[in-house]
Design brief:
Elements lengths: L12 E7 L5 E5 L20 H4 L6 E7 L13
Antiparallel strand pairs: 1-2, 1-3
Length: 79
């Protein structure tokens, strides 16, 4: 998969739904609200906890909100 230069796919995560070891369901980051704004606000009012859980082995990720980027028209060719 080709991504934009100097950008990781984890940066496109806006929200995660997790199940902790004790069975508790937790949501981090930004989640859409019916009737709310459609613009993704990944940082909300403070730092995001999403990156703490992207490669964690002590939680199960059950859902995610991913920001979609427009497809580039054309990639420049390498010389």
């Amino acid at each position: 998969m080709i991504t934009a230069p100097h950008r990781t796919r984890a940066e496109d995560l806006a929200g995660l739904e997790l199940v902790l070891a004790d069975g508790q369901r937790v949501r981090t980051g930004w989640w859409p609200v019916p009737g709310g704004p459609a613009v993704v606000q990944p940082h909300g009012t403070g730092p995001s906890l999403n990156h703490l859980f992207t490669q964690a082995s002590w939680v199960a990720v059950t859902a995610a909100v991913v920001r979609l980027r427009p497809r580039p028209g054309r990639w420049p060719s390498c010389p």
